[in-house]
Every structure is written in structure tokens, then in C-alpha cells.
Amino acid sequence: MAGDILKRHSLVKAAKSLSGWIKVKTSGDVTADPCYTFDTIMDISEKHGLSSAFYFIADHSTDKMDGLYSITHPEIRRLLRHIYARGHEIGLHTSYNTYRDPVQTAKEFEILKQTCEDEGIQQTTWGGRQHYLRWETPTTFCNWDAAGLDYDTTLSFADRAGFRCGTCYEYPVYDVVNQQPLKLRERPLIAMECSVIDECYMGLGNGEKALEIFQQLKNTCQQFQGDFTLLWHNSRLVEVRERRLYEDILHCFGIL
């Protein structure tokens, strides 16, 4: 509510936030949370014949930087089942301090897999990304490979969308220190919404300038018959303009 008033300068949004908070607390209806946009994401994806991947934090390696929810909470378990039932993918969103920690990485993947197994969720492929795109090569590659994950899609620069890997193709990973191939595959992350939108990064907002950048990146991927991998946080679909931008991107791309 403070953000609605001080940052977004909207008493109407503050009132809606208060109303949603009261509804969640009194009735337990988590869909009243403005950040509960999972059905919106799936609706938009399915409208364009796409399938989305939702990455969940399974454990916490720091109190300050990781998500506040527990993957064992009944509502999170219900959400996992709901996503799976609609034919979308579930993956791992490792916690803040995992990028140098193979033990914690493996622990979090096991928690996610066990939770999904308990809920009757079965997948042939498991992947995800690092929190805050934190990375160390080849340490993080090796962590994911040792844990048994099939793919990572972390590699992008947070401050500028584009081709950190120099390619838009999924590729097999190689451990350059131990000079051996890994089973893990990398899916280069081409664009994260906040990299383009936020003032602390490219600062293009959520209008035509931002859409133009996404289109340019998409066209480059298309030119070389590659994959445009887009990361969009569920909390960035609360604003009408951000939702409209997201829908415009998917409408233009036809790929996710």
C-alpha cells in the first residue's frame, strides 16, 4: 500500500491492495493477492498455443533475499497441481546462495522433486534458473549437473537484455576446468522483463520503446532460427501497462 501511494501515486491501487489483503486474510482466497497472476500467464500462453515454465524456490539459503513462501504450504502444493493439470512445466528456482554450493543445490532439487512426487506430478525434464541470475562458471554448471537437472536457463546479463552466451540455441555444457562434457544443457536467457523496463537497468519503461527492444531480439533469434527465451515475473503483471506489454510480446512472437 505504501508503494501504491508513494511510488505509483494511486489511492485507488492502495485501496485495492487493502481489499485484497483483507480478503486473503479473512477468507483464505489467495487469488485475491494481486501477484497471483499464474492463471493469467497460463491463459495468455494457451491463447497463443504456448507452454510456460514456472520455477519455484524450494528452500532458503538466506533470510533476506529468498522468497517467503514454503513449497510445502498447502496453497503452493495446490498451485503446483494446478499448473501441472493445465499442461505447463514446473521447475527449480534455486535460492540466493546456491550458485557456489553444490550441496544446497542438490538439496533444493530433491525437495522440489519429492514435493511434486507427493502431488502426483511427473515430468521427464527438469530445469530452472538461479536467483538474481547469480552465476560462476563452471562452478554453477557443475552444481546443476551433479544435482541431476536437465537444463539451466540463467545466462543473461541482468542490466541489459541480449545474447550473453553469444547464441540463441540450446547447447551442451562443457566443464572447461576439468575438461569434460556435462549432461546439463544451457538454454540462453535472451530477455528478462526488468532488464528492459526498470530504471536501474535499460530504463525503457513498459511502452513502445520496450516493445521495440523485445521485437529486435525476437527478430534476431528468428533470423537464425533460434529460440527466444523470455523471463517474466508473476509480480510484474499487476500493472495494466506491464500486462499489456507482456500480451503484445507474446502476440508478436508466438514463442515463449
TrEMBL record:
Taxonomic superkingdom: Bacteria
Enzyme class per UniProt: hydrolase
Signal sequence annotation: none
InterPro entries in alphabetical order: Glyco_hydro/deAcase_b/a-brl (IPR011330), NODB_dom (IPR002509)
The protein's name: Polysaccharide deacetylase domain protein
Species this chain originates from: Candidatus Thiomargarita nelsonii
Spans traversing the lipid bilayer: none
UniProt entry tagged with the keyword Protein transport: no
A molecular-function term among this protein's GO annotations: hydrolase activity, acting on carbon-nitrogen (but not peptide) bonds
